[in-house]
Design brief:
- The protein is 40% helix and 18% strand.
- The protein is of the alpha/beta class.
- The structure holds NADP nicotinamide-adenine-dinucleotide phosphate.
- Belongs to the short-chain dehydrogenases/reductases (SDR) family.
- This is Hydroxysteroid 17-beta dehydrogenase 1.
- Keywords: Oxidoreductase.
Length: 292
């Protein structure tokens, strides 16, 4: 039997991957909402990292915030988080946890490839499976999934990451249709570059390391060139997570304020990757709702 510990006037939001980046920015922003419109279940696999979120909120943990342990690759951890939340009403589920993997395909280890799919695809699937039944029973809800421009077009030297994000596109497109009669809305946020720790956190073949030894000279040269391009892209064209959102990004999260803000205005000289990321709304973020 579902309780309704979350006051009816509040929107209950559960977000995965809140230890850093977009998840942290979104959780902090919603929890600090001056009108206290949200109750945020900010989840992360290592609760010790919750300190950063608390610091962002001025050192405390407001009543609008609850930290929960959740590793999207661990069914027991998911079940425990679901038990904690499913006694209450959950309005919005944000599947944000993700990891990257960059490098020539020949250098991607079996384990690294599996981790990417375990977190980006199966992690999102498991999370949705855990919270969907209650949303269906209530015949209401919104599921937001952090996709990527890399789920729309293949980005060089990101083949495994892109494959996982392409798969997420299929997952969401299929679900969106089936869940419509249940009044559950699926939203894919297809981010272009956002300035977070993503680039530092991703698994990446070291251009000077042993992984590239034995690889042909042309691929090595192209990869090094791509890495330079990529660093420049994140320096100059990325959005910053956690800052004030643009009006467009406000709308992005279906009425929730987003944590994305474009830093420099998009210019004509923007690199192709960034242009692709901004093709729909020219603001570096692309949002897809199911067709009306
Ligand atoms: N930044 C970009 O340019 C960009 C562009 C397109 C899409 N995205 C997508 O945006 C999402 C957030 O990325 P970000 O930029 O904010 O990068 P980030 O700062 O590296 O954040 C990734 C988050 O995912 C969490 N995570 C990783 N494995 C997990 C697991 N097994 N269970 C639960 N959480 C896990 C990380 O937690 P730990 O601290 O425990 O590792 C971290 O909180 C990802 O899905 C990413 O693919 C980002």
């Amino acid at each position: 039997m579902e309780q309704s510990a979350v006051p009816t006037e509040q929107t209950a939001v559960l977000i995965t991957g809140c230890s850093s980046g977009i998840g942290l920015g979104l959780a902090a922003r919603l929890a600090a909402d001056p009108a206290r419109r949200f109750k945020v279940f900010a989840t992360m696999r290592d609760l010790a990292k919750g300190e950063r979120l608390r610091e962002r909120l001025g050192g405390g943990c407001p009543e609008t915030l609850e930290l929960l342990q959740l590793d999207v690759t661990d069914p027991r951890s998911l079940a425990a988080a679901a038990r904690r939340v499913l006694g209450q009403r959950l309005d919005v589920l944000v599947c944000n946890a993700g990891v990257g993997l960059m490098g020539p395909l020949e250098t991607c280890s079996e384990q690294a490839m599996r981790t990417v799919f375990e977190v980006n695809l199966f992690g999102a699937i498991r999370t949705i499976q855990a919270f969907l039944p209650a949303m269906k029973r209530r015949r209401a809800g919104r599921i937001l999934v952090t996709g990527s421009v890399g789920g729309l077009q293949g980005v060089p030297f990101n083949s495994i990451y892109c494959a996982s994000k392409f798969a997420v596109e299929g997952l969401c497109e299929s679900l969106a249709v089936v869940l419509r009669p249940f009044n559950i809305h699926v939203t894919l946020v297809e981010c272009g570059p956002v300035r977070t720790g993503f680039l530092q956190n991703l698994q990446r073949a070291d251009p000077e390391g042993s992984e590239l030894r034995g690889l042909d000279a042309d691929t090595q040269r192209l990869y090094r060139r791509y890495l330079r391009h990529c660093r420049g892209l994140f320096r100059t064209a990325a959005w910053a997570a956690g800052a004030s959102p643009s009006p467009a990004a406000e709308g992005t999260f279906g009425g929730l304020p987003a944590c994305l803000r474009r830093v420099p205005a998009p210019g004509k000289d923007m690199p192709p990757l960034c242009r692709a990321g901004s093709c729909h709304d020219a603001r570096g973020i692309l949002v897809r709702h199911p067709p009306a």
